[in-house]
Amino acid sequence: MGREKGPVCVTGGTGYIGSWLIKVLFEQGYSVHTTVRPDPDNKRDLSFLTSLPGADGRHKIFRADLSHPESYDAAIQGCKGVLHVAAPMDFEDNEPEAVVTQRAVDGALGILKACLIL
Ligand SMILES: NC(=O)c1ccc[n+]([C@@H]2O[C@H](COP(=O)([O-])OP(=O)(O)OC[C@H]3O[C@@H](n4cnc5c(N)ncnc54)[C@H](OP(=O)(O)O)[C@@H]3O)[C@@H](O)[C@H]2O)c1
């Protein structure tokens, strides 16, 4: 394996696109800062991420939510790049579209701000 690269932050690490990106980043020798949504009871099984080949010693998992844009700061700090693929999905229409869209916009703006500052 070549020299270690990164870290790269991947938001929405539990998602379809996010988890594939993480897998490919490890394959390419990057270290990764993954964000997943807060899980107060710590019950969520993240072994599909932590057991990825290449994850050992190269993977840090952070808790962040798009509703709290500043929650991404810690994961982004020190990163060479950010792949922002966390996205609010509301297939059951539990919330008005405008609310979901605003959450996505605010989250993305917070992440961009963190990229500029950190
Ligand atoms: N899948 C595709 O083929 C495809 C193609 C083109 C573009 N895209 C775009 O790529 C992005 C990701 O798609 P995907 O298929 O990977 O979706 P996904 O599997 O539903 O993943 C969405 C991710 O966002 C996280 N998330 C949802 N609400 C959040 C919140 N409030 N705060 C923080 N994280 C939150 C989810 O966390 P939880 O696991 O906790 O819910 C999950 O990790 C979307 O913008 C989508 O439109 C996808």
UniProtKB/TrEMBL annotation:
SUPFAM superfamilies: NAD(P)-binding Rossmann-fold domains. Residues 10-115 form the NAD(P)-binding domain. Pfam families: GDP_Man_Dehyd. Keywords: NADP, Oxidoreductase. GO terms for molecular function: oxidoreductase activity, acting on the CH-OH group of donors, NAD or NADP as acceptor. The keyword Oxidoreductase applies. The keyword Lyase does not apply. This is Bifunctional dihydroflavonol 4-reductase/flavanone 4-reductase. It comes from Hibiscus syriacus. The lineage of its organism: Eukaryota, Viridiplantae, Streptophyta, Embryophyta, Tracheophyta.
